[in-house]
Hints:
Layout: H1 2-20, H2 22-25, E1 35-42, H3 53-67, E2 75-82, H4 87-101, E3 105-107, H5 112-124, E4 128-130, E5 147-148, H6 154-168, E6 174-179, H7 182-197, E7 204-208, H8 216-224, E8 229-233, H9 236-248, E9 254-257, H10 264-270, E10 279-280, H11 292-304
Helix pairs in contact: 1-3, 3-11, 4-5, 6-7, 8-9
Amino acid sequence: MLKKNLTLIGLLMVTVFLIATPALAQKARGVTDTEILVGQWGPQTGPAAPWGAVARGSGLFFKILNEEGGINGRKFKYFLRDDGYQPAKTKAIGKEFIEQIGVFAVVGGVGAGPGMAVRDDLMEDKIVWVGPSTGIYNWIQPFQKYLFAVYPLYDDEAYNLAGYLYEKLGFRKIAAFYQNDDYGKQGIMGVDRYMKEKNIDLVAKVSAEVTDRDLSTHALKLKDSGAQAVVMWCMPTHAALILGETAKIGFKPQWATSNTLSDSPMMLEITKGLWAGMINSNFAELPDSNNPLMVKYREWHKKLEPQ
């Protein structure tokens, strides 16, 4: 549900953009007298499949907009494609959106690697991209005229998490477990930055490849480091695996993670309860928020997608 909240923020930006430029919309690719074509990729299968809710939540939001009349008399036609969290597939999907479907905009899109596989193609063809579902510098450096990032930078998020562990909880021996790509590296960048300001080194930095499934040696490295707390920056599958492996060997540090793993009910389920006690950062409304937009979203969810 939280991921749907984040998507909602990005989609509202799309809505504002469309409302503000009705005249331009008449001439825009992917906009007809009756429809607005938008697309998104997302891992509906594969190791990052739990993140697939981002794209499905977007689909529900477009249904809500259509039920309420659309934008300037136009209804959204939404194209969801499963990339399995594989950049090569994402690139092919991007080409489909540009060359075959001719979308007006792309919204969301999970993953640093998948997103980078299509960023240049989308920008070259002047495709509006709102709210990439990841917080890396690559969306804002260099500046991209048609790209509207909404996530906080992982660097800043991790910096603040490290500060919380160090200053509020008093941990001095902090380690990092991260995915070996821009997503994981830019998160751990923030932890490193904070620790350097305190003239303290991380006791361990342990990385995993997206394709890794045996994390037993990773768990041993973390335990052997003597870490009191571990910041993790990884996908849901790896989070479940590393918690399982560390539990097996009796290593129970304080864990902390980013907004990308903040769907606590889901994480509790896939970790079989090992998620209890996790500290995570967040920047959006909580699922049970009384914010009018969230109340409205939950009501529509029950009506349109009761399953």
